[in-house]
Write a structure and sequence with these properties.
six-stranded antiparallel β-sheet, 24 helices, Rossmann fold, Glutamine Phosphoribosylpyrophosphate, subunit 1, domain 1, alpha+beta, 3 domains
Length: 634
């Protein structure tokens, strides 16, 4: 995990006191992500300033520090992530005459960019990454295929004399620090309330954008026109007729994810995803297996410990305490540059803090089973879609068209039945609408617009439109849903959750199941019958675990345990009710970001809209309130 920052534009005569102060604040924020060192480089004419904070993993020497200079006079690279096929690329470059001065993947990436160009390099690298490469008057920035590593940017076109400026960083907070300003985007607040996250290219801030999964940005330095952003990768758009035989592929991917010069550990639960990962890892690596120990009925330590023993791994229990809701919200607000509506963010922050609390010998690089649900079909909506009430909405009698309900649900006096009917109608508009309603039980987009005083019609039209362009009706279910997972829920929620929680503690989280080779293979594979049935989700991973259990290499109990999500587990039957006083006294209400009578848009307990919708609405407002308090009233 590293942090990057870049300012590029017209030459500056000098770096004045104000800019110097902003650069220092930006570097301070980046150092959370990269605690092992930080450097700044400025071009001779000061048209380019590059910042880098390093978490050293491959080649720990100073020779591998960044910003890294290339063979050409004005070629520089800042980079965050890991290139897992480093050795393959190094050998290929060496065969073409390239000589290396370090053992780092940074140097491999830089030479690849100089020799092959950005687009060929992006086709050849396999990893998680975010980089900014400057070569003469060209700037190229890109993120990996799934968006595991983030890049935010803002383009300012300049005045009458021209001379555009581009500011890029790993997080929105760093962009704001480098610019010395921040402005809330109320349309993004609406999106957050109705989707649960803010999808690329939008962010929570006006004029700050983010690259989406598999995207590359290109810009001529100083151009008043904005940068050109294109996609170099998208999930498969059709399935092949050949079943996937993926055991060898998964073993290769898992082995490559263990590269580095620091200890690598594995998060091991009693679930299918992490157990299958542990089972395909090569033996003899002496990896530590870490299991979260919440000290309650959800404790998975005994099963995970048995698997660790059978695999010859050293097992460690990591005590994790939920603590108070207000403390968890404060921690999440500090760690996340953008809020979400999922309590898994709170769990992730508590988890990474618990790992770091183990002291100076705590592992800095950790493998996890994240992405198993997206890659192999583990969510409830991947099974037959008619099983869920939302999918029966079209057959329910008496539901008016969404347009007829819009005027009602925008009003605080709308009934619970009307709000429920509006959500049902919303889910019938398209496959993407149904998907978004299914993955997050938040506010109807019309309700969200009404809460923040926005344009009701625009909010309603925006919901689902951004994801509908990626829907491929020809794909069979669940491949069709998995495609939207990778580009929607995973890119917008799951991966920022992992990245920011780890980055706030200077840790690196790796997700082998989201490797490009895995997604290309499995999302393009024909659907098998067991993917539609319970307990047949993730059949490929289940087969791996079943074979390992039969060979007495993992605990057989893993196969019979029910799926256990990563959402926050707090004492009490309705823990989200504790959000109400937190929201009421927040600056969110006091500053008028949301209306004073917001509670009238939250269904009462036991109404038709349902318990999950009430809890989800309280959760997203509480998370937004804590985030806003820190950013705008801290």
């Amino acid at each position: 995990m590293c942090g990057v920052g870049v300012i590029a534009g017209p030459p500056m005569r000098e770096i004045g006191a104000a800019l110097s102060d902003r650069l220092e604040r930006g570097m301070t924020l980046l150092r959370r992500r990269g605690p092992d060192g930080g450097r700044m480089w400025a071009s001779e004419d000061r048209s380019i300033i590059m910042l880098h904070a390093r978490l050293a993993v491959q080649d720990l020497t100073e020779a591998a520090a960044q910003p890294m200079a290339g063979k050409r006079a004005r070629s520089r690279l800042v980079y965050n992530g890991e290139i897992y096929n480093t050795m393959e690329l190094r050998e290929r470059l060496a065969s073409e005459g390239v000589r290396f001065a370090t053992r780092s993947d940074t140097e491999v990436l830089l030479h690849a960019l100089e020799r092959w160009g950005a687009h060929t390099t992006l086709e050849r690298v396999r990893g998680m990454f975010a980089f900014v490469w400057v070569d003469g008057d060209r700037l190229v920035a890109a993120v990996d295929h799934a968006g595991m590593k983030p890049l935010m940017y803002r383009h300012d076109p300049g005045g009458i004399e021209g001379g555009g400026r581009l500011t890029i960083a790993s997080e929105c907070d760093t962009i704001c620090a480098l610019l010395g300003e921040r402005e809330l985007d109320l349309e993004s607040v609406e999106d957050l309330l109705s989707v649960g996250y803010v999808a690329a290219p939008r962010t929570m801030y006006r004029r700050i954008c983010k690259l989406g999964p598999g995207q590359v940005l290109e810009w001529r330095i100083g151009d008043s026109a904005g940068p050109r952003v294109t996609a170099y990768w998208r999930p498969p758009e059709e399935v092949s007729g050949v079943p996937v035989r993926a055991d060898e592929l998964l073993a290769v991917v898992a082995r490559e994810h263990c590269i580095g010069d620091r200890e690598v550990a594995v998060f091991l639960s009693a679930g299918i995803d992490s157990t299958a990962l542990a089972a395909v890892l090569p033996s003899g690596l002496s990896l530590a297996a870490l299991t979260l120990n919440p000290g309650d009925a959800s404790d998975e330590c005994a099963v995970a410990e048995e698997t660790s023993r059978l695999l010859g791994m050293r097992h460690e229990r990591v005590a994790i305490s939920a603590g108070s809701l207000s403390d968890l919200l404060a921690d999440a607000a500090a760690a996340y540059d953008e809020p979400q509506g999922f309590t898994a963010l709170l769990t992730s922050v508590a988890m990474t803090r618990a790992v770091l609390a183990r002291g100076p010998h705590a592992p800095r690089v950790i493998l996890g089973g994240d992405g198993g649900d997206e890659a192999f079909g583990g969510y409830a909506w991947h099974r037959d879609p008619v099983d869920h009430p939302l999918n029966l909405a079209a057959g329910l009698s008496g539901i008016p068209h969404a347009g007829q309900l819009a005027g009602r649900v925008a009003l605080p006096e709308a009934t619970a039945d009307e709000r429920h009917a509006a959500m049902m109608s919303l889910a019938t508009r398209s496959y993407a609408h149904r998907y978004l309603v299914r993955t997050f039980g938040g506010f109807h987009p019309v309700e969200a617009a009404a809460l923040v005083g926005g344009n009701v019609a625009a909010g309603d039209e925006r919901f689902g439109a951004w994801l509908s362009t990626e829907d491929r009706p020809a794909l069979p279910h669940p491949r069709r849903a998995q495609r939207l997972d990778v580009l929607g829920f995973c890119a917008g929620s799951i991966l920022p959750k992992l990245d920011r929680a780890a980055g706030a503690m200077g840790l690196e989280m790796r997700s082998p199941w989201l490797d490009r080779r895995v997604l290309d293979a499995w999302l393009g594979a024909p659907v098998v019958h067991s993917e539609h049935t319970q307990p047949g989700s993730k059949p490929l991973l289940r087969e791996i675990v079943a074979r390992a259990a039969a060979a007495r290499r993992v605990s057989p109990q893993v196969l019979s345990r029910p799926k256990q999500g990563f959402s926050l587990r707090l004492p009490g039957t309705e823990p989200m009710e504790a959000m109400i006083p937190i929201i009421e006294r927040s600056a969110l209400v006091r500053d008028g970001v949301i209306r004073q009578d917001w509670m009238r848009f939250v269904p009462a307990p036991g109404t038709l809209v349902g318990r999950s919708s009430r809890a989800q609405r309280l959760c997203v407002l509480g998370m937004l309130g804590a985030w806003y308090e820190r950013r705008f009233n801290g």
